Amino acid sequence: MATPVVAPRYRGYGRLMLAYQMVQWQQEPELREVEVPEPGPGQVLLKVGGAGACHSDLHVAEWPEGALPYTLPFTLGHENAGWVEKVGPGVEGFAEGDAVAVYGPWGCGRCIACRRSEENYCERAAEIPYHGGGLGRDGGMAEYMLVPSPRLLIPLGDLDPRDAAPLSDAALTPYHAIKRSLPLLGAGSTAVVIGVGGLGHMAVQILRALTGSRIVAVDASEQALALAREVGADETVAAGPDAADRIRELTRGLGANLVLDVVGADDTIALAASVARVGGHMTVIGLAGGTLTWTAMGALPWACSLTSTYWGSAVELAEVLELARRGQIRAHTQRFTLEQAPEAYRAMREGRLQGRAVICPNG
Ligand code: FEH
Ligand code: ZN
Ligand code: ZN
Prior knowledge:
Largest sheet: 7 strands, mixed
Helix content: 10-25%
Shape: globular
CATH architecture of the largest domain: Alpha-Beta Complex
Oligomer: single chain
Number of domains: 2
Order of helices and strands: EEEEHEEEHEEEEHHEHEHEHEHEEHEHE
Number of strands: 19
Structural class: alpha/beta
Bound molecules: (1R)-1-phenylethane-1,2-diol, zinc ion
């Protein structure tokens, strides 16, 4: 049970910890003191190394009561990594001190999609009143986090959990989106990434690691475009009225084989649709709520597929971690203490972050 922050670190027999929690819809989250959970049968207690701050958290906090199936309060933080602190009865294969990433989208664990490790597309999602730790269940913005099953843990090897945490969403989400377009992305192809924030700067690196595409990054901020060049973009384009012409110029008027919209606002969706190629893919992973009016003729080039994807599979997370261990991708992070979590989100809202903010509750 949560109470406001008070001095004692113990209440009764339960040890207390700080947690950054959603307490009321459409209100700022709060730092509160809560009990450290005890892992029950089949559960694992994680000592949190890092919990990435994601744009979706801002959207979640903005929803009115009843729009999401979540029960309040719950601790934020849905891209998490840390060390196993304690395993509950019956848990095998993990031991205290193991460095692990937490697979973020929590499904039923039993349906065909979940058995394929695609809990992001769980067949029973509509029956489950949360989307994962930090999304309706307690997440990683606390000293400890309860993980309901070891199936949700992926070993990190020698990766530092504070560097690896963002990989579980900021890298996994674009990795999943890009993987389905790989047949289009041979040498001579073009991939456009719109938005070079937490997910976008990982998308550029993933395209570099997996494809022969020329990578074009688009953003309104010159700082973001500098980061895009640093992590491997071949071309950068300032967002604005000339962006579409510039991209067409770069592609001999043909447009891009893949346009990945990491923002998902009206203007970025319009730009994406105007620079996709015949037979290409337009994939929207940003959640800014933009719309596209689709008509059979003219909204998109012929044979161009439009899709949105959600997060990725646990197997894909293992692949992402392998890319990071080999040094092919790296999340650019800014670390914050748990007490600084409100400042991390403020910086995100005001566009002052470069790369991903990671809350490190244990230093
Ligand atoms: C979280 C909640 C709902 C939709 C999408 C997300 C993403 O941050 C996961 O990639
Ligand atoms: Zn997220
Ligand atoms: Zn399922």
